[in-house]
Design brief:
With 343 residues, this protein is α/β, with parallel strands linked by helices. Helix content is 43%, strand content 15%. The protein has three domains: 1-62, 434 Repressor (Amino-terminal Domain) (Orthogonal Bundle); 75-171 and 311-337, Rossmann fold (3-Layer(aba) Sandwich); 178-307, Response regulator (Rossmann fold), CATH 3.40.50. It has helices at residues 20-27, 31-38, 46-59, 65-72, 91-103, 122-131, 147-155, 178-191, 207-223, 239-250, 264-276, 296-299, 310-325, and strands at residues 77-83, 109-115, 136-139, 159-162, 173-176, 196-200, 226-227, 258-261, 286-291, 304-307, 334-337. A six-stranded parallel sheet has the order 2-1-3-4-5-11, with helices on both faces. It is elongated, with a radius of gyration of 25 Å.
Length: 343
Amino acid sequence: MTDRKIAGDGLQGAGDRPTLKTIAFMTGLGVTTVSRALKDAPEIGPETRRRVQLVARQIGYRPNRAGVRLRTGKTSVISLVLNVEDRVMSFVSDIVYGISEHLADTSYHLIVTPYSRSNDPLDPVRYVVETGSADGIIISRTEPDDPRVHYMLERGFPFATHGRTEVAVDHPFHDFDNFAFARDAVRRLAALGRGRLALLAPPRALTYFRHMSDGFAEGLIETGAREVPLRGVTIDHSIEQVRAHARALMERPSRPDGFVCGGGASAFALVAGLEDAGLKLGRDVDIVSKQSSQLLHLFRSELLAVDEDFRLAGRELARAVLGAIAGEDPRTLQTLSAPGEAK
């Protein structure tokens, strides 16, 4: 007998892909039993399921997705639609990690479908839906009346959004409470004696701009602080653009003495701008900023950072989109994470 596969014996040679027959041969079970054990079928005993799944992991078994799709009409794929120009620090790696972590114990795997801001953000969603290249979609950078959400709702395609919308139909989402973040940031700055505050916000088209700006306004009303407008720049602008706007603002007589910043990378730029203007963080001005990594304190210990956990967001989005695929009530697939204390 050679090391090549012989019909019916379940063996494989070098370079051959492990199959259900391979696992059946190694465990002494039937192919049907192996298949059901890999799907966690309740009629298969727990010890048998563990043994089959252990062997499958050890030999690197992966389902033949083409075959699965032919049999079931499913791809076992989740598509994460991402803007390739998104520069939010650690956002991409952490959210991908979180989604992948949740999918690890399922039959699903993740693909990233990129797009550029110069393109219509509906294009990649339309492509996935029309080609049937995934069973569910996760999108970010949501807008209040997001056309991508309308498109997927109209076609009954399972999805989840990172961020909320104001669409009348319930849909799965995970979001960070940007209203509470901005309100609490104003409270923290007011407690430090700061009374002239500026907000560096996301672009106006995004839903969380409304949440953050409303929370900022609520904080101003509560504390009696007043706003010093920071116009012409958002957290989507380049670091150099934010830096230049911050310097110009801080060189005015009526400059702010506190900032609420919606993104970690932009906080670096704010600090650089105020230092360009000859001011010192923690003495002349304070900044409360969101961060998705632990880098802000390494940059300037005086920065007041509030963590936004993108790995948690990834796990919640994966759970939500799988629930949508399974037909669960979308109202049970909506989560909101609260900001921690500024530190």
